[in-house]
Amino acid sequence: MKDDILANLDNPRQLERLYRADKPTFKRTFKALYPELTDKTLMRFWDERLNFGSEEISWGTSKDMVFVIIASIVAGIIVKLPVMLSIDEQFFFTRNVGFVIFPVLSAYFAWKNKLSIGKIGFIAGAMVVGLVFINSLPDVKESDTLVLSCIHLGLFLWAVLGFAFVGGRNNIEKRLGYLRYNGDLIVMTGLILIAGGIMSALTVNLFDLIGLKINEFYFKYVGIFGLAAAPIVGTYLTQTNPQLVGKVSPVIARIFGPLVLVMLVIYLVAIVYSGKDPYNDREFLLIFNALLIGVMAIIFFSVAETSKATKIQAETWVLLLLSAVTVVVNGIALSAILFRISEWGITPNRAAVLGSNVLILINLLLVTAQLFRVLSKKADISGVGKTMANYLPVYVIWTIIVTFIFPLVFGFR
């Protein structure tokens, strides 16, 4: 989108086409470019147009609303399938929880992006393959490969949703937009769930005051449909009204970046004094890796937000230090898993953690090197986002391997 806007600065008709094709991305990209283009009359006009009435809430078209309502009902029905079809709930939700939300969200973006029949077929085919495969795995108790496959299937479906979001194109800006969408969706869904929780509590208690016990019915039907609908409604609101959380998400990233950095440094020092040993303590190693993944998510989101900013010197320093410290954390986790493999042999869990740590370490080193180049005035901040976006397919490939190949290689154990 950035290159398209720059190439059509003097072409009002083409700018209008770009805007109508993808309004949220156009607005975000324009805001990042505008400080450098204030001398152009046409750009000043677009700035006024995009900011005029930006506080108003758009509810989209009637077709949009109908789609959201139908998608929410479908998601709720999927949640109720175990009851309707007498399926064991633990079996169903362990394997199929990702299919409650990801298919309907993928359908939403496929519709909004007007994807071709071929791309829609690819998305549907990937979903069906995942659905058939995960439900065909033997129901083996304490199967590590089953657990790994179920966890990574969610990441696989997330990747399929990303394909629908970017429209199947190799577009770096759209990939970064997908990461921003995930951050915005978390914020918006959280707000919806808080508001829904308050309304549910009031409703149940008001009926209780007049002697009607609706707790069980309410949470079995109304509550469960509301939970399923929350991310769908959240997606709809963030896409039709990017200004709703467009200013909140960057603030959260800038607040939590330094806080996580301080916490991580203190935590590493505390590990030395606590005597905890990730080399021999399996539970501690799992928590350590969970911490690593959480920090990586914050770095990803922060980079996605910072890459569109203009005054980012302080934020870049924070990201560089956070990335460097996370490299240390990753190094400890990686050496610990290698030690455990050398001592007790390879297992599905150790293989999965080893592969994930290696991929994360490479990604961290690439991002850290790019951030250093930015601070050395040898590269632009947008290069950091490009580095991260270009690496995302590597994670997708690893997710596919763990989901579909690990159970076969390790004999479903």
From TrEMBL:
Membrane among keywords: yes
Sequence intervals crossing the membrane: 65-85, 92-111, 117-134, 146-165, 185-207, 219-239, 251-272, 284-304, 316-339, 351-372, 392-412
Keywords annotated in UniProt: Membrane, Transmembrane, Transmembrane helix
Keyword Transmembrane helix on entry: yes
Organism domain of life: Bacteria
UniProt protein name: DUF4153 domain-containing protein
Lineage of origin: Bacteria, Pseudomonadati, Bacteroidota, Cytophagia, Cytophagales
